[in-house]
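#data-curation
PF: Archiving a pair of folding outputs for the training set. Convention for this channel: one message per protein, sequence first, structure tokens after, nothing in between. First:
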Amino acid sequence: MLGWKLLLQHAAPNALHDSGARFDPPKCDDDTRVEVIGEIMGWIQDRDPPQRCLCLTGAAGAGKSALQQTIAERCAEKNVLASAFFFSTADFTRNIVAPIIPTIAYQLSRINPLLRYCIVAAIEDDPLVFSKSLRAQIESLITRPLLQYQEKSGADLRDIPRAILIDGLDECANEDHQAELLTAIKDGFLNESLPFRLFIASRPEWAIRTALAAGGCFHGVAYQIQLSDKYDATADIRRFLWRKLLDIGARSSDPQAQPPFWPTLQDLEILVRAASGQFIYAATVIRFVSERRGSPVNRLNTILNWTSGNNQRSNPFAPLDLLYANILSKAKEAYDAADINGHDFLLLLNAYRLNMDRNNDHIVQDLDHLLCSEHDAHVWFLSDLRSLITTEAYPNHRASGQQLLQLRMYHKSFLDFLSDQSRSKELFFPKSEAVWKTFIGSIMQPLHGTPAMSTVDA
């Protein structure tokens, strides 16, 4: 059938939760993320939830994709998975919005032959439907075929699989397209005639933040789980590392790696602290230590003692460095394109890093001060760094009735990345230059009668 062939041509098989292209995808380890998984599955299985869209946001490496994969597999087991789509920056077949509606339509068509017939008939009636807007595609490929299926079969649409999962919205290449997709989801999938639950996971980037904010298309429509803030993963990470390291040791031929002598509790706690509550650090450690060509004891010691000055050939943090470099490069590019005052993005970022090294007095209004007192300048400076950095109320301190904010970096390893030229490479900013330029700024532009962001030791 022509319509079926066209649907397959426009879908993205690599984006499926069980795609061979995503072999051995990350997922939650046993006995981890129990509370948040329970919350999400309970919401999906609720036949009449107050909100039919859930947005999961969290820092880079917080474990969002692992949660999505776990939820997808559990939904499939319970026969409530309608569709799953995993975006990926690195895969050109699934880093754009074009294939998402056809891919969802393909997965829906596999529910039963009659629904497949209705979807294929819609394509054959309008073979150019794939060139239309996302909202029009939802109407043509999903809404109308489902209503036709209901009319022909007499079935209750609430009985069909209801969970539609979209992972990594931030990995879609174009921010405007991300926003378009969210609007289309709200207008198309969340109308009262359809039974779906939309579960969307993303770093807290511009499109999802705007959609959830007051006046955004999801405000009051979707509820949000802020993974990095609501659920402390420290205990889960400790269990994950302990179990994985014991398993690696038990399978190793190195007698030093045999339980119960390895790993030590001291080593475990060092790793847990370094993870800063983010699963990506723990997963990076396990991936490096589990390499078969070498002793796991030696490889773990490499991580525990690793510094750029040790002349070690392998960098155990290479996957982390790639993640940080990608986020930081894109943020710098966006900032440089919008900034008309010639401010140095890396200088401002590293001024904060140095100030955090010195003490905890890192107030974002000081950053506005260095940006020539532009109101809320930090908002757009940090706009593309929200998956690495957040702001929170500065305790017990107000200026002219205004609540001051302080900066918090989600990852200790990100601070390590910024301070190590061998890791950050062209994104490295020399400490001496940052200290000097920040000191000059503090002299030239005093804030509230005190030096702004001074990083010079007394």
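PF: Second:
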Amino acid sequence: MSTEVRVPTLGESVTEATVATWFKKPGDTVAQDEMLCELETDKVTVEVPAPAAGTLAEIVAQEGDTVGVDALLASISEGATDGAAAAPAAKADAAAPADSGSSESIDVMVPTLGESVTEATVSTWFKKVGDTVAQDEMLCELETDKVSVEVPSPAAGVLSEIVAAEGTTVDAKAKLAVIGGSAASAAAAPSAGSESHAAQPAAASGSKPDVEDAPSAKKLMAEKGLSADQVTGSGRDGRVMKGDVLAALSAPAPKAEAKAAPRAPVPAEDASREERVKMTRLRQTIAKRLKDSQNTAAMLTTYNEVDMTETMALRKEYKDLFEKKHGVRLGFMSFFTKACCHALKEVPEVNAEIDGTDIVYKNFVHMGVAAGTPTGLVVPVIRDADAMSFAGIEKAIAEKGKRARDGKLSMAEMQGGTFTISNGGVYGSLMSSPILNPPQSGILGMHKIQDRPMVINGEIKIRPMMYLALSYDHRIVDGKGAVTFLVRVKEALEDPRRLLMDL
């Protein structure tokens, strides 16, 4: 019996990859989930694990070949050799608890962090060395640029060693800790383990290991006259990939960074009352992306106001029936999402993005909904919001919002947005200028609904009013388009029937 090894899903809009490196050759014994080869796309490097244990019978796609999604890479013969079945046991050093007193040691590795995420910071250890842990019990929490990742114990036993302490930055393949099978092994592990791990930094500080760069990378470096020491490799063991060469070629000439102004001296009586806390990776990323947005886009904001009388009346009339039928509350976000999708059809450049010298128009709406969490602002994405019903939108917003507050959002859930809505009104904001979420070209800011005197047909009436703000990238969106978009949103909310009539 043989098992096919095929190209995995490569990511949104990525349709092909290049086979960069094979780690195994035909005839080699492989364990399930052992890495077989590395694929290289325009943006990321993808490792392909063995779908089953056995013997690598045939390699169909050679190094340097370009393959599409689900293409056949190789085949594995199952049961062709006893070695494959024995490999996992041998890898564990045949350390199952026995009368001899030996015990199995299992490494706790960094889990999959998400597409394009290469490192994380160990934020919190829930256990300490010597603690007994159950299988799947949470050991520690990692913090990436976007999300927090909990690391469960791969097996029951004793936490015999913590390799990466709190505050340590680790890569996607790093060892975090070691689980011993018994208290006896836990007592012995720190002394033996500390010596082996103490030797690792020394080895790492030496010369770069002799690794084979990706064929496509070597070819491109030769064409462009680059040497390997001019390119930083992102592949396994520092292997240079094609994307690394392209990044090196497109990188601007290094410029002297402007240093931040030194902090003014603090009086001694105040210094003792200060508290200095290191920024989380999420907060650092938020700061960097917001500043990059200001530096890159020609950002401008236009304002309008909307009379919420009709939308509020419609919501009040149907909210109980809506919740009874659909099992979710009817809020204002579904009205605004629908109104924005409606307006984006008329002004498609607000839903587009700039890619080099091209404008990419999106014939769909993946709506980002900014959500505040205890650790910072995140923007989960509701895909194909333009094709969803009011109930579908409300359910998606409720589910994404809960996952955001619990820190359970995945990287995939925050990627690919084409337009964003930010509701500062929930915090009492009356007026603000939202910052673009790159590479998007538009973001709508909602604000507090406040009763104000308005002139209606020559009479002063009290109406529930909300200020709206559209920040847009003036490189792609002209003033006329921005104002038209905001007016269409205003019209749809002041007369929600227009949404039903597609007017």
